[in-house]
Amino acid sequence: MKDYQIDVQLSTTKKEKPAFNQLSFGTVFTDHMFVMDYTKGKGWHDARIIPYQPIMLDPAAIIFHYGQTVFEGLKAYKTKEEEVVLFRPDENMKRLNRSNQRLCIPEIDEEFALFALKKLISIDKDWVPNVEGTSLYVRPFIFADEPYLGVSPSDTYRFMIILSPVGAYYKEGINPVKIAVESEFVRAVKGGTGNAKTAGNYAASLKAQEEAEAEGFSQVLWLDGKEHKYIEEVGSMNVFFKINGEVVTPELNGSILEGITRKSVLELLHYWNIPVVERRISIDEIFQAYHAGELEEAFGTGTAAVISPIGELFWQGEKITINNGNTGDISKKIYESLTGIQTGNHEDPFGWRVKVD
Amino acid sequence: MKDYQIDVQLSTTKKEKPAFNQLSFGTVFTDHMFVMDYTKGKGWHDARIIPYQPIMLDPAAIIFHYGQTVFEGLKAYKTKEEEVVLFRPDENMKRLNRSNQRLCIPEIDEEFALFALKKLISIDKDWVPNVEGTSLYVRPFIFADEPYLGVSPSDTYRFMIILSPVGAYYKEGINPVKIAVESEFVRAVKGGTGNAKTAGNYAASLKAQEEAEAEGFSQVLWLDGKEHKYIEEVGSMNVFFKINGEVVTPELNGSILEGITRKSVLELLHYWNIPVVERRISIDEIFQAYHAGELEEAFGTGTAAVISPIGELFWQGEKITINNGNTGDISKKIYESLTGIQTGNHEDPFGWRVKVD
User: Fold this and answer.
1) A–B interface: beta-carbon pairs under 8 A
2) Where on the chain is N6-(pyridoxal phosphate)lysine found, per UniProt (chains A, B) (predicted)?
């Protein structure tokens, strides 16, 4: 690896670390952060690791008004041998650049970004928790910081990486959750930003999520924006179903996120010779499969939760219970294999695990 | 009006003002800004006017990651009598709260917000330019500032108002612009956030805008996200057409913005007894009307540009020139009436003009 130039200013004081067996998600941050600036004509410059501290921005900065921003999410784990490892971080960097293209943000050097990310984690490696189910959540993000109220791409940007030791994303852990099929609100539509990891998609999802929670559901199942008929995602995860022995998941259609956990699940299933198909799936089909006794499992996949089994689905006044509300065999097998590879407890035949020296 | 409590801390130094006859859009800001905080359980609190200064935020603040934010835009004008006036500001406050609802942001007290806005402008009233075509652009915005990486509504928010003396939004001024009909990208779809004034809609528009500009167009004409057939908006404006003596504009359908200029144009046309209809309009219909010799005018409406005539429309390889590329009579009449009312040069039979102090 090239010896990229990153200025490092270490924190003179260390924060107190939280108890690693009592971590929640995304509320505590480590001692340092990575920052790099972009200026039109000059490119990306001034890469630095500095103490975790507030950002100062002009109130007219584009991020506040027009949301020109992208982000990524990945996790670092501590193995039994006290090594720190990442899961497919190159995939996150590739996706970050795909998101950049959609949002008119200048691309980053993926290799350099990964180098910076590893260097930051290595400086804060004592923050990587070693309790089962925990990890160090890594959040790279880029935002437009030019003070300008016209609607056009910014001339300046900031690329940052922050780190947060986390426990399970869902209080339920790997236990099945209750999901409402969303029939009013739409997360994204083809031609929009649904397949980019950008703030607006998440802002758009809040209202449906809030209403679903008020009715006792954990998440919503999103349908397509055109016909309100085809399944897209569940909450902020991709979704899989097992129907009559075959696993199916919505095909990449321009409006769903190209999940790295999704991709890994597909590769695992192929490796195991379990039949799996990416295609359009209507919500009708799922309910019909249930009534025919063929809907065997359903689960969401994402970096934060890894695998989140769906125990109940509610749609148009009808509630169906999947696999008697229990975690299915395939969900369990995938969860164990993925987390096993991620944490270093299993062999990694795919070369997915990457050491943070 | 109630005497609301706002702490005022005046700037000890004054910035140099730009030449009012050389203003661009949204690059220069006044000496002061308004800030108010929201804390769950406490409500909105600590309303203050302070010197214009950078915002400090935790890098994990929700605004950077999930775009939970809304904004407004309106203009203050200086009349010949040196009075400062606003145009229908109550409509902006109402819309701000409608946007708040969609984005799960706590509502503001509209009357208080208007009081604060007037007080801020009155403190910075020397910044209201008095040259024809100029105004003081007013930007209220609210954003989520809680440091939390889970996807859910924030427990804390900041409401701010900043002011910027501006010239014409388009370099072309009231001259007709060239517009490309967008057939790949989509701004918004029903069930999404298209009718809220929120960052993600604008982020989603950048790519199409950038590609259109590279091909020599000023803006794109957005079609609906479901069928790519019906007209929605032009750039970040609402759009009107005059066909065979009748003015038509897309009906409010959940995905287009409820423009205040749009509303005012409709009311002006009714007042003048000019036939006007809000309904679904397909892009086919516009091109057919052109070929039948019945497409008489086309124009965008919005706070920034007021009226922006469309001189050329490009779609599927065909370019049509509207009204020989000249500003139409209705466009001109509306522009003159609206700006006349806004600046105090015309009578205001509707009570749209509101004095600051």
Assistant:
1) 224
2) 197
